């Protein structure tokens, strides 16, 4: 709980070089410890995420590298991402020799799920993959965070299709997926599309203009005396319901069905009557069952083989999730414009599943992937191929998958977003006043420039954007006004003024932009110490206020 409540001192810095279609995309790939990233996303994405899927480490003793440090989580993260011993082994794996084996895992997952719940929309749903190692513990934690009444299902995914005979007692063939809603009273399931096999059961033997149909028994038990009556077939045969049964319809209703051509007596007109059910009138989706078979949603081996082909016959990931599995999840609970979050991104299967769903239904779903940039070992194949972190492989997977989807769907997917903006977790761009410092000159230097030396202006803009709770994908334009630069975010939603020798001239530019873009409730952020003097700063503020911007919306940094 304390880890979730502890404020973050971090920010997210943009990395255009790693991104794809930066100026066009609304997808995000964030490199960083997901605990800190989830904190940073709280203001911008609270109550906006429709669907979350996570595949956290199962705590098998080999895959758990999220060993949080309560005292300073950001410093811990910055060290951890490069922390290996002299032999190249990871130092933060949670082994069974640790006396706090389950406790450490629970302390890791709890604050992340707590923060994730805040991001879910009221009708949002979260899916969490897990195996037997921590399933029971996860269920108790999820019940506490999301509420027992908001538990939707525990899905059993058949992830293996053949036994491992080296196992001593049982060869596990399944994983679990726990499903919770934020508020089940507001959740609507889209269901699963009917299969072609199910539709093929419908035909049209009598060329009914209402289209294909199938037929069901007219008789039902136990008998209802009122509905026992003789029926004369078109061929003249008298038919009664079987012993102990009656007809489903009253005699008057039966006559109405006859007049509407909803009763079928067989091709020769002498068979026992049946009720016609038209394909056009049945529900076009089905309610999913809680056992998902590999024939329908794929298995671990098929996912591994697919990724191997995607990466030119190179195996970079162990036990990735199959795309059809995540597509089913997205199909069930997302809308065409939903935000889908995965903060244990791994092989980035969720990103590909989102893109594929958009390609299928011309949707505009957006993904947010979060992945720890865990260092690869020199002995790993991916390292030898030039990758240095797990996040780099995930980003490349999205690039390759996007190209493959476009190749497979050469028509009508030009508008599908196959890009992503990369952001990296980093320390704040803004220096902090150190009240305990003995170097007064150093602290006074902050008044001249309170930004870190390695911070770029655009880094500062995105940090302000996060602090103000704006979407990281909002468009940003910039224009020079003298020696200053005015950044226009989301067509006048916010203006950030940075640079040198700032004068009140920037106020005129901002007011013109607001008028041209017909913006309302604009916020203006000014780099305080860069005004040429206090008079120019005060004049700027007064001009902005006179144009309709409230004093509370004119901020200094």
Automatic annotation (TrEMBL):
Gene3D superfamilies: Vaccinia Virus protein VP39 (3.40.50.150). SUPFAM superfamilies: S-adenosyl-L-methionine-dependent methyltransferases (SSF53335). Residues 49-372 form the DNA methylase N-4/N-6 domain. Keywords: Methyltransferase, Restriction system, S-adenosyl-L-methionine, Transferase. Residues 198-219 are annotated as: Disordered. The keyword Transferase applies. It comes from the Bacteria. Pfam families: N6_N4_Mtase. Belongs to the N(4)/N(6)-methyltransferase family. This is Site-specific DNA-methyltransferase. It comes from Staphylococcus succinus.
């Amino acid at each position: 709980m304390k880890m979730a409540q502890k404020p973050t001192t971090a920010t997210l810095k943009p990395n255009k070089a790693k991104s794809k279609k930066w100026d066009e995309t609304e997808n995000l790939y964030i490199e960083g410890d997901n605990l800190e990233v989830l904190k940073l996303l709280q203001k911008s994405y609270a109550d906006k995420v429709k669907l979350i899927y996570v595949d956290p480490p199962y705590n098998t003793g080999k895959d758990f590298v999220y060993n949080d440090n309560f005292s300073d989580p950001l410093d811990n993260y910055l060290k951890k991402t490069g922390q290996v011993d002299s032999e190249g082994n990871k130092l933060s794996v949670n082994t069974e020799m640790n006396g706090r084996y389950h406790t450490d895992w629970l302390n890791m997952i709890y604050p992340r799920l707590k923060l994730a719940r805040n991001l879910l929309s009221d009708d949002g749903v979260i899916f969490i993959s897990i195996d037997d190692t921590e399933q029971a513990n996860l269920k108790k934690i999820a019940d506490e965070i999301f509420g027992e009444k908001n538990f939707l299902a525990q899905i059993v995914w058949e992830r293996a299709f053949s036994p491992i005979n080296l196992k001593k007692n049982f060869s596990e063939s399944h994983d679990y997926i726990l499903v919770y809603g934020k508020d089940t009273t507001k959740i609507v399931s889209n269901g699963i599309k009917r299969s072609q096999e199910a539709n093929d059961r419908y035909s049209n033997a009598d060329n009914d203009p209402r289209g294909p149909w199938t037929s069901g028994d007219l008789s039902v038990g136990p008998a209802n005396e009122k509905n026992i009556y003789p029926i004369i077939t078109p061929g003249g045969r008298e038919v009664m319901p079987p012993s102990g049964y009656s007809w489903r319809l009253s005699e008057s209703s039966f006559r109405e069905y006859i007049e509407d051509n909803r009763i079928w007596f067989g091709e020769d007109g002498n068979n026992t009557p049946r009720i016609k059910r038209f394909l056009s009138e049945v529900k076009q989706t089905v309610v999913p069952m809680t056992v998902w078979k590999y024939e329908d949603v794929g298995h671990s081996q098929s996912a591994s083989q697919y990724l191997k082909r995607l990466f030119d016959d190179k195996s970079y990931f162990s036990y990735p999730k199959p795309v059809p599995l995540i597509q089913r999840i997205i199909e069930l609970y997302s809308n065409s414009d939903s935000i889908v979050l995965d903060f244990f991104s791994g092989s980035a299967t969720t990103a590909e599943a989102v893109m594929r769903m958009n390609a299928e239904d011309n949707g505009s779903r957006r993904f947010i992937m979060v992945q720890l940039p865990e260092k690869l070992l020199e002995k790993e194949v991916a390292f030898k191929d030039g990758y240095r972190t797990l996040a780099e492989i995930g980003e490349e997977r999205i690039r390759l998958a996007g190209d493959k989807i476009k190749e497979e769907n050469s028509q009508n997917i030009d508008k599908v977003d196959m890009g992503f903006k990369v952001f990296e977790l980093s320390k704040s761009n803004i220096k902090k006043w150190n009240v305990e410092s003995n170097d007064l000159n150093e602290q006074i230097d902050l008044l001249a420039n309170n930004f870190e030396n390695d911070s770029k202006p655009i880094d500062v803009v995105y940090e302000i954007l996060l602090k103000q709770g704006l979407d990281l994908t909002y468009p940003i334009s910039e224009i020079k006004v003298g020696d200053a630069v005015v950044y226009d975010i989301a067509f006048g939603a916010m203006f950030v003024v940075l640079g040198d020798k700032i004068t009140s001239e920037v106020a005129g530019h901002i007011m013109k932009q607001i008028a041209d873009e017909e913006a309302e409730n604009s916020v203006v952020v000014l780099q305080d110490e860069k005004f040429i003097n206090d008079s120019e700063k005060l004049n700027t503020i007064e001009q902005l206020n006179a144009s309709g911007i409230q004093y509370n919306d004119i901020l200094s940094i």
